[in-house]
Write a structure and sequence with these properties.
The chain is α+β, with helices and mostly antiparallel strands and 77 residues long. It has one domain (3-69). It has helices at residues 3-20, 25-34; strands spanning 37-43, 49-55, 58-63, 66-69. Strands 1-2-3-4 form a four-stranded antiparallel sheet. Helix 1 (3-20) packs across helix 2 (25-34).
């Protein structure tokens, strides 16, 4: 992966985390640095890859192009 592609992917992930938890991009980045935001790579029951992000006791699953808030009524799990 080229450096620009990697930067774009990291930027998109950081933006998804920020949006999911109503944070600014800077707050999401700071949260990753200080441990108040967590990221974990995983696979769902269908074998699809996602990133599970946590902040303030809430968790989301970030897929390519969509975000599921765990515990929300629309959660497919």
């Amino acid at each position: 992966m080229k450096t620009k592609e990697m930067y774009d992917e990291v930027s998109a992930l950081l933006g998804a985390v920020a949006k999911a938890f109503d944070l600014t991009d800077a707050q999401a980045a700071q949260g990753l640095e200080d441990g108040t935001v967590s990221l974990e790579m995983s696979l769902d029951a269908d074998g699809q890859r996602f990133v599970r992000a946590g902040h303030g006791g809430r968790f989301v699953r970030i897929y390519d192009g969509r975000v599921f808030h765990e515990g929300a009524p629309a959660d497919p799990a």
